[in-house]
């Protein structure tokens, strides 16, 4: 994982006095370096080079750079671009302290950004699992997909792409996360939806063993689909074009509407055709579901 040294620092040289607050979590008396978060709520985190070096090759290389002789006993200060909340959460992941909770993608994204920048692989591994948790992936799958693509998390992008099948990706709220992904990544998602929708629609073929006693009763030598199937087939095609999954089209409300559109015995025909509907559902579920 590559990183770019973007922080400005005055390592091993005393910084002028500042009005920065001191973190309540990180104010160790034996600290040998201070990380100072960005304004407007600049906060000093009195921490240890050894732990930073162990967690981050970025800091390990920084501390290995030749430095001018120290002319003061003051602890050197490194100014970073991250705000107080982001830096505090990041440090709580690498120190043996209580692990912070992340309740939204708005919280997670800047922390993942910082962990990636500082090459904190262990923290990135924790955050990438949190990113695709059902809590986030079910609620806002396109945002999760965009964030995964932004940080080159291919496996997480695949997982998120599966969740997006349950939503209309062309009608999702526009979010700033989409600014950070490429047209290629977005096209891959649209291509998955298009191909899966087409394949699912092609599977909507009725078995001749599915009959309705009233719809087919007068035609012993010709097979005509029950009326419920004509309604189901048309609405299922429309639904699969938008959300190519089986969650809606095989739900009880969806099937009940088709039963009402049929004849008096179509509801019984649907119940008798449970074996066929189960097979059809499994066939659609088995279609490729990730980018």
Any overview of this molecule?
This protein is α/β, with parallel strands linked by helices and 291 residues long. Helix content is 49%, strand content 8%. The chain has a five-stranded mixed β-sheet. β3 (33-36) and β4 form a beta hairpin. α4 (105-117) runs antiparallel to α5, α9 runs antiparallel to α10 (227-242) and α10 (227-242) packs across α11. The chain is rod-shaped, with a radius of gyration of 29 Å. It starts with 7 loop residues before the first strand and ends in a 6-residue tail after the last helix.
Terminal Cα separation, in Å? 23 Å
Order of helices and strands: EEEEHHEHHHHHHHHHHH
Sheet with most strands? 5 strands, mixed
Percent helix range: 40-55%
The computed structural class is: alpha/beta
Strand content: 5-15%
Question: What is the compact description of this entry?
Answer:
This protein is an alpha/beta fold. The chain has 13 helices and 5 strands.
Please supply descriptive tags for the structure shown above:
13 helices, disordered N terminus
SSE layout and pairing:
Blueprint: E1 8-10, E2 21-27, E3 33-36, E4 43-47, H1 49-55, H2 57-64, E5 77-79, H3 84-94, H4 105-117, H5 121-131, H6 134-139, H7 141-150, H8 154-164, H9 183-202, H10 227-242, H11 252-261, H12 266-272, H13 274-285
Parallel strand pairs: 2-4, 3-5
Antiparallel strand pairs: 1-5, 3-4
